[in-house]
UniProtKB/TrEMBL annotation:
Name this polypeptide is given: Predicted protein
Source organism: Laccaria bicolor (strain S238N-H82 / ATCC MYA-4686)
Length: 57
C-alpha cells in the first residue's frame, strides 16, 4: 500500500520528469502518463493518443 506522502512525491516527480520529455515520440501518447506500481516499484504508463490504437499501451 502506498502512503499519501509517497503518492504526492510520485506526482511531483512525474511533473518534474515530464518537463524533460521533449522527444517527438511523446507526441504519440496522451500528455499525462499513469503512475502504476508493480512488485513494489513505480512505473509510468503511457497511453496511446491515437483514436484507433492497435496496442493496449
Amino acid at each position: 500500500m502506498i502512503s499519501d506522502d509517497e503518492e504526492i512525491a510520485a506526482e511531483k516527480q512525474l511533473a518534474r520528469l515530464s518537463k524533460e520529455w521533449t522527444a517527438g515520440v511523446y507526441g504519440f501518447f496522451k500528455p499525462d502518463p499513469i503512475i502504476e506500481y508493480a512488485g513494489g516499484r513505480r512505473a509510468h504508463t503511457f497511453i496511446c493518443a491515437a483514436t484507433h490504437c492497435r496496442g493496449a499501451t
